[in-house]
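Troubleshooting: if your tokenizer reports a length mismatch, compare against these two reference records.
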Amino acid sequence: MNREEILAAIDAKYKAIGQNPDVHLSGLLHAEPITYWDYIQVDALLGLQIQRTQLPDEMVFIMYHQINEILFKMILWEIAQVSHTEDIKPEKFIMHLDRISRYFDVLSSSFTVMGDGMEKEQYMKFRDTLTPASGFQSAQYRKIEIASTELINLIDFRFRKTIDRNTPYKHAWEHMYWQAAGKDYETGKKTTLMANFEKRYEKELTDFMMEYNEVNLWTKFKQLPSAFQNNTDLREAMRHYDRTVNIDWVMNHFNAARKYLGDAEATGGSNWQKYMHPKYQRRIFFPELWSEEELENWGADAYMEKFEQY
């Protein structure tokens, strides 16, 4: 666009919202030019790492998890663009799924940053200051799961037959697979880890369940015309995402934890081995895109042998 076209477009833009274009143009005379550090908020970002100890490797632990949360936000941003686009075309669906999978590929491969980046002696000291906090309490990760699939696929495998679309969200919440990390189902007693998490996020996450009940990625996929559902590239993008999140990411996380913890409890007190391992909870976002054999061996087939060696 030339200068006259740009000025005409600015004029039309601000008149359309009842604003005087000349006032906004005048404001440009006084505005400071943007800088990288102001735009990215570098000073604020670098001021967010607050250690609880003087152990140097705690800084690695903090920054690594903050990077994870930034990537989780990027993933939710991409999911929202699929979920809230009406009559979405396969090309757009694939584009955003590929972006999401790349983010999770980064997350999956990044565990060596933490797994090989901290001295075990230091970690075992500063981790005691983190009780009862746990990475389990990442609400963004829970939102990613909720926005990816129907709730039934996130229900603890033992209780799925008690859940259907008419089940109250509160009941579904009480039987999400990750409740096993902080709840004794025989007594109903919850750990401090779970109690703190629910106090902070239960309403926010149950509201999120309602928002994505009909627009999660799996439901959106099943609403596509059959010709689109059979698009090979789209189906493979869905499978890659499912595998990356629910096997690759989980097992890399699992092995990084096992390197430091062995059989010890997590800081939140959870039985993290059974909570995390895919062969126990069988988290699968898009079950109908997998064969019976693949479903039967989810998290326990030959593919997993490389993880079991650690």
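Reference record two:
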Amino acid sequence: MNYKIIFTWWNNQTFGTFLKTLFFGKYVGSDEYGNKYYQSKTNERWVVYSKNIEATKITADWYLWIHHTIDKIPDNKLKKYTWQKKHLPNQTGSKNSFKPVKITKNDIKKKYDSWK
């Protein structure tokens, strides 16, 4: 047994989640990031993250399932449309993060003439 889960929650899951998964959880599937999804007999649903606990690592299909929007368990082998992009987790703080263009006062062009 990994003793880190007793004292720290940021490594994978808490000790309480470990016990809940062990005794009440039924494994239903996993996604491309390695996150594992479970369901109880009372239709309670939860995720055990593979590495860092980051909610944005849940794909859209699994997000819908875990929030009871759909009941069908998502299939990773289901072919997506060509216009659909691959899911990306939050990119904040990485080199891929969005950086807006800085607009200066000289860049703004007036659409009217000022009174003189």
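Descriptive notes for reference record two:
- The beta strands are 26-30, 36-39, 45-48.
- Residues 15-24 form the longest helix (10 residues).
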